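Quick check before the chapter quiz. The format below is the same one you will see on the exam, so make sure you can read both the input and the output lines.
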Amino acid sequence: MGENEQRVFARQSSGLIRTLSSKDTFLLNFMYLSPAASIAYPLTFAIFFPGSNWMLATVIGALMALPTAFMYYYIGMLTPRSAGDYVYVSRYLGPRLGMIQAMVNIFGYGIGLDVQTEQSLVIVPFFQTLGMVFHDPGLVTLGNNLVNNTFYYFVSTTVMILIIGAVLLLSMKWIARVISGLTILQIVGTFVIIAVLFSIGRGGFIGDFTSVSTSLGGPSYTDITSSYKLPLSFNGLGTLLLGIMIMGNLFIYNNAPIWVGGEVKKGSKAIRSGILYSYVFAAVISLVLVASIVDVIGQRFFIQASENGWLTSSGAGIPVAPYSLLAFVIIPTLSNTPLLMLILISSLTWFVSYAFIGGLNGTRAMFAVAMDRLLPEKFLDVSPKLKSPYFSVLVFLAIALIFNYLEIYQGFSLSLMFGVISYMLFQYFIASLAAFRASKTAGSLSSRLLVSSALSAVSVATAIGLLLGYGGLTYTPSGFGFQLFSGNVIPSVLLLVGIVVASIVWYEVAKYYRKKNGVDVDMVFKEIPPE
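Here is the expected output.
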């Protein structure tokens, strides 16, 4: 195949080096799943599903995404290349769908890079908490300004994007070291959170919250829970829908090693550790976290505080916005500064993990598309010193910075859940179909890939269908559908349609241009790219 590859592909070798070990892939994928960051947001939707069982919903979410995890494990062994999803979607479903899938990743992660750092969910409560503990109103004000002041918000998101870009410019070996260090810190912090919550119990949490809140003129724990009027009898449909929300926000993101497959050491051990072992570990951690929320923090309190806050009508109370799990878990540690600082510092890794993985996905997609001659060869430039595809990284950063400005200063925001649903469709559903097609020629993996990909496609399609269907039926100002599609839905749809149309047009133009230069692009997609 060597001579044919040299003739067909833009380069004979990718220039990327296989450096990622089993430990690296495990930590990489766990950081993408990030249970502490991901579990709280879907639980805020429980207000629309009174009577839903949160523990059962978490199990449902994990089981619904399990076939996708196995599908990625098998396809990862079959096609160990960077930008793996793009590679096998373009080979088994055709280059047009492959191009769409690649561009959805490039622009989806580029547009959302500032959102993925989640200033309001971690960095804001970080400064608010420091201000409260050290009696420094300036830090509280700084935290508030990071989201309320346009200039502060723009500067902070720009700085975060540039930091992420600086890391992405490093070699994969150093990126893995950074991500591994942050992930270990995140795991330690998560264990501390779990230990703290279970050690104090419900009574301890109630006492701690009431003591802190009332000392600041705020409501007691009972004041907040007494306003919860929804029924608590078991709701099967609500439990299923909540499970799908958890799946779509947490468990479905289990394919980080696939996007750097060409940089993972050969053999099934690294892929198994990165896809399956990390998934099981994250699922167990998620269940324990949900148990701590249910048993210690309390469902009624969590829903009411997340929905309405915990300040009085005059603004008195704890000056930390309860928008993420972090705001709740700091309450019992306010009098223990070392534990509090450990939790606060580890929380800084929660959401930035998505930005790192998203950046890897986007840049590796550009690199793979260029290898297939659909982007200029400049995107294949690998720095001899840094050992990274620096040009792809710089273009990705430019996309992120442009949309960061458009979002903050021009109001170009996207619907979060619409983005999640779209990504499930264009990433995981299409990938499942490609894996199903690939199973016909997968040799010894054929039957396992066939079953896992079929179940994955059915599971993802069912999740999307139920969310869209129920969302449509409950699209009222106070209904689930209204919250599900909150944000600029029409611009979100138009952007998605634009990406799809632009991808197809780009492919046809690139194909025509390459043909004029004597290159048959169709031949590219009959072979797997070189390592």
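If your answer matched, good. Residues 1-6 have pLDDT under 50 and may be disordered.
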